Amino acid sequence: MNGEDSVATGRSSAFVVTAKKRKIQQITRKIGESALFLVAATVAIIVIFIFFFVARDAVPFFEIRGFREFFTSSDWYPADDPPRFGAWAIIYGSLMVTAGSALIAVPMGIAAAICLSDVIPFSVRQYVKPVIEMLAAIPSVAFGFFALVILAPLLQNYGGPILMWTWWIIASPFLLLAVIVLSELVSMSIQDDKHRKIAQRMYVSFFGLIALILLFFVGNNLQKIEIMTGTNALNVSIILSFMALPTIVSVSEDALQAVGRDLREGSYALGATRAETIIKIILPAASSGILAAVILGIMRSLGETMVVWMASGNASHIPDPWFNYLESVRTLTATIAGDMGEADQVTGSARFHVLFAMGLLLLVISFISNFISERIVVRQRKILSGQ
Amino acid sequence: MKLFKKIVYSAAVFGLVASADAMAAGNKIVMDGSTTVGPIAKAFASHFTKTTGVQVTVSESGSGNGAKSLINKTCDIANMSRPMKDNEIAAAKGKGVNPVENVVALDGLAMAVHPSNRVNNLSKAQIRSIYMGRFTNWSQVGGPNAPIVMIQRESNSGTQDSFKELVMGKDNPISQRTETQASNGAIKSRVASTPNAIGFIGLGFVDNSVKALLVDGVDPDVRTVKNGTYPLHRPLFMYTNGQPTGVVKQFIDLSKTAEGKRIISEIGFVNYH
Questions:
Q1: What's the CA gap between A190 and A258, in Å, rounded?
Q2: Pairwise CB contact (< 8 Å): B177 & A152
Q3: What are the DSSP calls for A350-374, one per residue?
Q4: Confidence class of residue B254 from pLDDT cuts 50, 70 and 90?
Q5: Chain A residues 79-118 within an 8 A CB cutoff of chain B
Q6: Do B56 and B79 form a contact (C-beta atoms < 8 A)?
Q7: Among B201, B228, B196, B232, which Cα is nearest to B214's?
Q8: pLDDT of amino acid B245
Q9: What does the pLDDT average to over A366-373?
């Protein structure tokens, strides 16, 4: 009976609050709330201040030189007399390496996230995920050093074979799938079972031969390519994709995990296979989170400076042809880093302000993509909740 | 109260340390600037500290940054591989700084290529055409049939300015296809690992990993730079605020002593005095 007693007394002391105590509680709550508000507000104010100060130093550039030259010309001679500030090639270089890294990192990252969340056993995942997240802990200058000292000479010396093997490894599974699907589709119209099987085999060997020829033909041509310079857009795209991968994998995996068991088990209960469940149920349900992951990863590539400065070659021209990833490019971030030392307020003002114009451009791009991703996430949530 | 005391004590201690630091300032030299002059400055610094006990800090951030530091009075000596520009001098005067140039050594600008490159000699006009993007293949200058990869320095580099002045001339812009590296060492390592590359580095940086070309038929070495027959040569400066005095003067005058001359030629540069 002792236990009951103590519960009763505990209750009474918990519920009877003196006026003084209540006042203290109120005050501490107010203090806590305002402290938290202050922290949150500080973060918001910092963002606004950064935007304001960057814009303040960027505007004079456009006042002096106008918009046209900056966005349309690719003559970047800031140190010449008279200087020319055509940044189009530099903007293009930034977009190019970002797109290249996204092209590598997004499919790989999403595939890895699916694998982690729905394919491999939980016990393995416990070890694999931290290892992938370790990639994010490597400082970017180490990546840059690797790109400059190891990857660049590798690309120069074995560029052709590397490209060929990459093509084979990526293309062969897709071509195999295409051959099987195509021969199924073509032979579908044949009614007789026995004939259809024979026809299918013939089609498989026919399409297979074409696929093999394609594989070898393209591979052979790729092998002949000599990469002139290893510090090029391809090198940087590869390294940037490594840097974006942990973000994409980790955030998408969280999104996939958040889908929950009920949807998965409901799908299995209806007789869907694991592949069907992943493609038709889990991916659509997690798509907003995955999109957020992708945009975060792309922002990482766009804003990265050290790696691109060290390994992109920093040649401010648009590659010829425009999609040639084997030529050097120069990016906005690398230009800001490289030119900042020379462009002091003391000397040449347009030269100084143009770097802030570039910074403002980067800020605007990331704001816009953040805004878009936010919109998509909101819309997706509405669709999923059935509104 | 305890916390308050602690703060007061630590502030007092900090203040003491800071003032002691300020008192030592007369016994300390801060240098900033060119990565080309850097090796001379560092070798001088270690010798100087050993013989006189004066602490010397050397930063290498490019000639432009060196000038900036001198103008902003954050260094005692600005190492520069090019003379100060008019606008820099004007900016310095505006801030009450009177930059005085002191030549400490001479340097040749070596045109470096990969050791496997067949080309041994280029004329100044050929180099200009290569960097303007008119010649894009080594076969146009007597080499193998391979595209030329040009490498230059960032715009804050005095070596870059010297190259533009000595080779390119005023109205010939360097091709946009030219790659950019941030230091002499970075250019050397890029050239050493890229068979088709050409780059320019200070004479002191040339070693076995790259091949220095003859320019107009003249080998870049100490003798040809000193007597001026090698076309791509330039003086190296240490700029000071006003005529150097005290330890700073002692430091700069090191280049006139036998020991200083030995150091300069040991690291591959050419004596001026």
A1: 45
A2: no
A3: HHHHHHHHHHHHHHHHHHHHHHHHH
A4: confident
A5: 79-81, 89
A6: no
A7: B232
A8: 86
A9: 87
Phi and psi torsions of A220, nearest 5°: -60, -45
CB A167 within 8 A of CB A218: yes
Looking at the structure, give the CATH architecture of the domain made up of residues A66-384: Orthogonal Bundle (1.10)
Contact B194, B99 (CB under 8 A): no
- CA separation for the pair A304, A316 (Å, rounded): 17
Query: Which residues, listed in sequence order, are joined to residue B238 by a DSSP beta bridge?
Result: B79, B102
Structural domains of chain B, with CATH: 11-105+235-271 (3.40.190.10), 107-227 (3.40.190.10)
Query: Do the Cβ atoms of B182 and A153 come within 8 Å?
Result: no
The H-or-E segment that residue A57 falls in is helix A19-65
CA–CA distance from A197 to each of A177, A180, A189, A203, B33 (Å)?
18, 13, 12, 10, 78
The domain limits of chain A are 2-52, 66-384
Residues of B in contact with A313 (CB under 8 A): 179-180
- A76 inside 8 A of chain B by CB: yes
Cα separation, A93 vs A361, in Å, equals 14
Reported as a single tens digit per residue, the pLDDT across B28-74 is: 888 988 888 888 899 999 888 888 888 888 888 888 888 888 988 88
If you average pLDDT over every residue of chain A, what do you get?
A: 86
Residues 6+ apart with CB under 8 A from A382: none
**% of chain A at pLDDT higher than 90:** 34
Mean pLDDT of A118-138: 88
**Interface ipTM > 0.85:** no
